[in-house]
Structure formats: C-alpha cells, structure tokens
Amino acid sequence: MSGLAGVLGVFDGVDATIEAIEKLRAAGIKRITAYSPAPDHAIEHALHQPISGVRIFTIVGALTGTATGFALPTWTSLDWPLITGGKPVIAMPAWVIIAFELTVLFGALSTVLGMLILAKLPYRKPLVVYDPSFSEDRYGLYVTPPSGRGGEIRELLREAGAIEVREKIGEVPGVPA
Amino acid sequence: MATVLRSETHPGVESYGEVNRDVLKLLGKPGPKYFALLATAIALVGAGAFAFGTMVVVGIGVIGLNNPVSWGVLITNFVFWVGIAHSGTLISAILYLFRARWRQSIYRAAEAMTVFAVMTAGLFPIVHLGRPWIFYYLLPYWPNQRLLWPNFRGPLLWDVFAVGTYFTVSATFFVVGMIPDIAAARDATTVPWRKKLYTLLSFGWRGSNDEWRHFTRAYLYLAAFATPLVLSVHSVVSWDFAVSIVPGWHTTIFAPYFVAGAIFSGLAMVMTIVIPIRKIFGLEAYFTARHFDAMCKLVLLTGMIVFYAYITEFFMAWYSVETPERAAFWNRAFGQYWWATWIMLTCNGVIPMLFWSKKIRINIAAVFTITLFINIGMWFERFVIIVTSLAREYEPWQWRTYRPTWAEMTITAASFGWFFMWFLIFLRVLPAVSVAELKEVLPAPLRFGRRHKAVSEGTAS
Questions:
Q1: pTM for this one?
Q2: Contact B455 A18 (CB under 8 A)
Q3: Which range of residues forms the domain containing residue B352?
Q4: How many domains does chain A have?
Q5: Radius of gyration (Cα) for chain B, nearest Å?
Q6: Average pLDDT of chain A?
C-alpha cells in the first residue's frame, strides 16, 4: 500500500526540537527519529531512550580477550615445553601482560562491532529522509504517523517551530505506531 | 536569535555553521606549497627506502650496530616515535574521561599524530632486524613449519602485542571517532572523488538519535580501553630494557619514567605540529591561548616527573654502591657521550621550567621554540639510555664506542618524512578538527532563545 510513509520536520533550534518531541509524545506518537549535528542529552531525555546495549559487546569481547591472553601462551608453551632462563614453562606474570593487551584489543574491536550492529551501520540505502544540514546546524524529526494522523502531525511540527515540513510518500508500514 | 551565547573555551566561535565552514575549508584544493612539502616528505621516504634496501642487499654491516651496541639509533627512533604517539591518546581518551573542556578542537590532530607515529615506530624493530624479511616469526601463527611458537616469557614479544594492540585500537578509535565528521564533509563537498570517499567512510551516518546513542557509548568505552592501554604500551617498551640486567637499564622506575617521558614528548610534538597549522589555516579561534596554556601545564608536569626520574637514576646509582651501576652513570654524564646527556638534561629538565611563567605559556612563538627543544631532548634521552648503557657494559674488553652510519641517519630522516607524509595527506583529506565534538561544547542553536530545563544540564556550556 502506498501513501504517506512519514513526516519530516526540520528545526533550526534544539529548544523547538525538544518541544516538538514532547508534544508528539503527549499525542501518543512514539515512532520518532531525531537527527542532530551533535549528540544531545536533552534530546535523549525527551525521547526516553534506553541505555545503549554496546556494553554487552564490550564486556563479552574483553573477557574473551582475557581468556585468550592466558590460553594462547599456556597452550603454545605446553605444545613444546622448553625451559628458558630457569623460568617455569607456564609463567603467569608474563601471561598477564599478554592477557591485558588482548583484553583491550578484543574489547575495543567488539565494542566497535557492537556499535555498528546496534546502530545498523553502515547504512547503505540512499539518504532519503535526511537533509545535509543535519550535519551542520539543523535538527530533524522524522515521524512515522499512525494511519490518518498525518495532517495532525504536520500541524504539530509546524506549531512547535519547524522551519520546514516534508512528507515522504512510499510504502506504508503495516504496523501502526 | 536574541543573544549569542559564547563557549568558555572557544569564545571566538559563534555558531555551529561556522565550525563546519572553518573546519571543512581545510578539505579544499591545496596550493603549490603543500605539494612542495609533500614532495619533500616523499623524497625523504625514498631516501630511507634506498638506505634500507642497501642494508638488505649488502648486509647488516651497513649500519653501525655491532657487539655490544646492538641497539642504536634505529631503536632510539622506535622508542621516540612510540612516545610521540602517547599524547594523542592522552588528549583523545584520558582528557575525554576527565571531561577536559579544551580538548575538543585539538584531539583529532593529536589522534592522527598517534596513528602515524605508531606506524612510523612499528617500522623500526623490523628495519633493525638482521633479516627483516622474516619479521613474521614474531607472530604466533599456526600451522608453523618450524613447529615453534614465540617465547611469551620474553619482553620483546610483549612489545609485539603491546604495539600491535596500540596501533589497532588507536587506528580504530581514530576512524570510528571521525564518522560523524566525515558525514559532515560528505554533506558539504561537491568534488566527486571526495563525495565517494566520504560516503564510504561515513558508513551512511545520518546523526539519528539511535546512531548517536550507540556511538557515544562505544566512544566512551573505547576511551576507557585506550586509557590503560596507553599507560601499558610505554611500560612494556620500558621493560624491553628494564627486564635485562644491563647497568643503567635494570631499574624499577622505568615504566612510570617512560610513560611520563612519552606524554611529555608527545605533547611537545602536538604543539609543534598544531602551531603552524593554526597559523596557516587561520584557526586561531579554535586553538586559543587557553589550549596552549593547558597543554604547557601538562608538559611542565610530565617534564618535572621526567627530570625527577633522571635525578633518581643518578642518585640510586650512587646510593646502590654497585660499581657497574655507578660507572654506567658516571660514564653517562662524563664519558664519550657526555654531550648527548647534557643535551637531554638541558632540553628536558631546564628549558621546560620556563613554562612556570604564564606569559611564556600563552606566547605562541615561545611555546613553539620550547617544544622544538623538547623534541630534540627526548630523542637524545632515548639515545642516552640505549647507547651509553650498551657501550659500557660489565666487561671492559667489550667496551666500544658506537657511531651511527649514513644509513641509520638517512633512515632516521626518512622516519620524519614518512610521518609528515601521512600527516600532510590526512590534513587535506580528512577533517583535522572534530566538528561534532566542538559543537558539544558550543551553545546549541535555539529557535526561541529559551533554554529548556533539560538543555541547561545537557551539552551546552
């Protein structure tokens, strides 16, 4: 079904953007995407966002690194047990260094992986609902309206101070917001 | 807008739009002077490649290394460049965790410096190997036709892991942190090849709330990883020396001493690089006297730690009543390399004391000159530690005076060429000042001039 897929409001101030978010939420509309040139805690608060799940990736990656950092030197040393410098074959203090470095390495890489997965990056579709000014000094709110409420949302965005309101015509998602 | 709110650290920057314009104009078409500089850098790299090639073809005798001085200028360069790298991570990660409000404009350049300095440093252990073509024996790989694994009990292998991790993590941090800024460059550029490149590197970034939410978290964790990492890397480098029993190396203070020295030299290098950039591109509003004041204070702090370590070393040599240790340090100050030691003490111990004066800290020309001395002093510090200790080990019949040959000096010059080649390319291809992070410390644009209750606690300063 083709129709009004979404409404985009462009704002030139963070205050107006937040006001619009609050009005939209008060009107029971929850499917809002906010675009901003810099991370903004106020927008995050207004949208009632949950805390990012990146930390799960971070801890799992880091612990995998620690385990690898102890396992690899242990296994390789036992593979050909050779006493050098009168030290034990499994020399834990030395392993700690390897384990530390691998904790950081695996932890950092899996953090980045987690970010890419959770933020759905790289985003490879053409940037339709986007304005180049969002990376400069404009804010944007993209709303997927429940069927029949497009006009109301347009009005709401304009009232909150949007300097421009655009509509996206396309496939309408089946699930109401 | 009724009132223009000003950022505390960047009072000359008025709006978000201005940041984009000022920063992204660096990504324009460079002039002939730029290409002349780049050509010089590339020519130096070529000369270094020639010297290295000669060494590979003729043999290790081309460089001045022999017993007992088997580590010379090449390893000096390695430690020097790894040290340079450290301040980039300090500014981008440690100061981020400390919420220092002046780091935003400067950290990208410092981070680029980190990545390129590690790339430079990483070449030296390989260049200095007798048979550099089998450098991969250092890596634990499998299956291994020699049925051997590397020795994990040896400090040199710790170094492989430390420097390898450092390069990977700092490069990742650098690239990931740049995503929103590359998106800004993508949106602003009209040059086709730039558009393509930025579209690719921006990962399709749109600045949506979900993207920012995960990005800022990931950035925080990366900073939290990079912070202990940077402290570990130069500690591990110092253990290359300290774990041996060479007089002058075998001390427990080496790790903190090296870390402080690394940050000291790195901060000096950041300023050496940023001061000309600021001048050439007219970025005075972004790199203000306040920035240099803050960095000079850090230089003063780390410089004093380093100077204290020098004094401790000499004191402990005397206090230990150990003849070889005492002889090593006497030789350091008054032996055949006395000049290197006194250059080190003057440049790192005495000259930075000028930074006690606020007048000097905010005098950009003076700061630039002093940082040049620190760069020289820190190179000599590594030379002194490595060469003077090896040239006079325990047995007098083994004593020898090391002199670097033309090949080592050429490779040393080439390392600067290599570093600046990457830096110059970076400066014109990628955003050298963080657009998005600067905006975090600037007052956000307002439509009605009203500050929302949540905004005042948020990002604007």
A1: 0.91
A2: yes
A3: 16-30+65-403+431-456
A4: 2
A5: 24
A6: 87
